[in-house]
């Protein structure tokens, strides 16, 4: 059955096991809308989706496991997101085994980004929070193409900052770890020279981060070659060229 959409804050809220969604519907999205979010869900497949929006193209949240994204095309949004996660003080949450294959991006901010909360609690969800525990692991993206990224292709921010949230928070003290992420194959052009901006926690650094077969260039033909790293332990198949901006962000970079 085709799925149609109304212009609301959330088009779909998906939960459950062994769910497959083929994208054949039509409709319009408000700019500040995710394509779809998963939470406490496993064995979800997104196949053949085309999303026009202004927020996360797709977002995997707490306890999303075994998620497959394939043959999709994303326009104008922020890209595929992990999180935000770690909102809730002392709560243990995970994201595990997320794969994306054969994805096309048009004018998105990122291809893929991760946003976790700090160890400090500043206010309460939805716009505030923090102090959560856990990890995101087993994320693999292959065969990605792009027309005109607006920011770093890949980003990690461990200090989300949303409108109306109190306090500032420590940008590098998150106790939520990012590990086992692999990017294999990204080609196309970008407005940004940053291939990656990885602002990880000093308490639990990012580990086992691999990027290989990246052919990203600026619209003038110059290679995009910046890999900005903060608290990355033993990066694989790429060399860090500098440090990222350290600060709060709702979209993966300061």
Automatic annotation (TrEMBL):
Swiss-Prot/TrEMBL keywords: Cell wall biogenesis/degradation, Glycoprotein, Glycosidase, Hydrolase, Secreted, Signal
Matching Pfam families: Glyco_hydro_28
Domain of life the protein comes from: Eukaryota
Family annotation (InterPro entries): Glyco_hydro_28, Pectin_lyas_fold, Pectin_lyase_fold/virulence
The keyword Magnesium is annotated on this UniProt entry: no
Keyword set includes Secreted: yes
Major place of residence: secreted
GO molecular function, one term: polygalacturonase activity
One term under GO cellular component: extracellular region
GO BP, sorted A to Z: carbohydrate metabolic process; cell wall organization
Family to which the UniProt record says this protein belongs: Belongs to the glycosyl hydrolase 28 family.
Identification of the protein by name: Pectate lyase domain-containing protein
Species whose genome carries this gene: Pseudogymnoascus destructans (strain ATCC MYA-4855 / 20631-21) (Bat white-nose syndrome fungus)
Organism lineage: Eukaryota, Fungi, Dikarya, Ascomycota, Pezizomycotina
């Amino acid at each position: 059955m085709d799925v149609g959409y109304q212009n609301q804050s959330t088009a779909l809220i998906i939960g459950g096991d062994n769910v497959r969604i083929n994208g054949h519907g039509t409709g319009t999205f408000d700019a500040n809308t995710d394509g779809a979010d998963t939470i406490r869900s496993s064995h979800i497949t997104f196949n053949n989706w085309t999303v026009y929006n202004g927020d996360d193209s797709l977002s995997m949240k707490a306890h999303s496991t075994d998620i497959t994204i394939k043959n999709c095309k994303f326009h104008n949004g922020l890209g595929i997101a992990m999180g935000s996660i770690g909102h809730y003080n002392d709560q243990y949450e995970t994201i595990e085994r997320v794969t994306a294959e054969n994805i096309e991006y048009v004018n998105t901010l990122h291809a893929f980004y991760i946003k976790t909360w700090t160890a400090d609690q500043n206010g309460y969800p939805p716009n505030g929070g923090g102090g959560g525990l856990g990890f995101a692991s087993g994320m693999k993206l292959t065969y990605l193409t792009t027309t005109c990224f607006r920011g770093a292709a890949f980003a990690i921010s461990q200090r989300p900052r949303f409108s109306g949230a109190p306090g500032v928070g420590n940008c590098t003290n998150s106790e939520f770890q990012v590990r086992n992420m692999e990017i294999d194959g990204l080609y196309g052009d970008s407005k940004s020279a940053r291939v990656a901006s990885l602002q990880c926690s000093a308490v639990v650094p990012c580990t086992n981060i691999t990027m290989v077969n990246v052919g990203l260039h600026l619209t003038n033909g110059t290679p995009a070659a910046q890999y900005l790293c903060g608290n990355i332990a033993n990066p694989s198949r790429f060399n860090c060229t500098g440090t990222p901006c350290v600060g709060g962000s709702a979209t993966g970079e300061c």
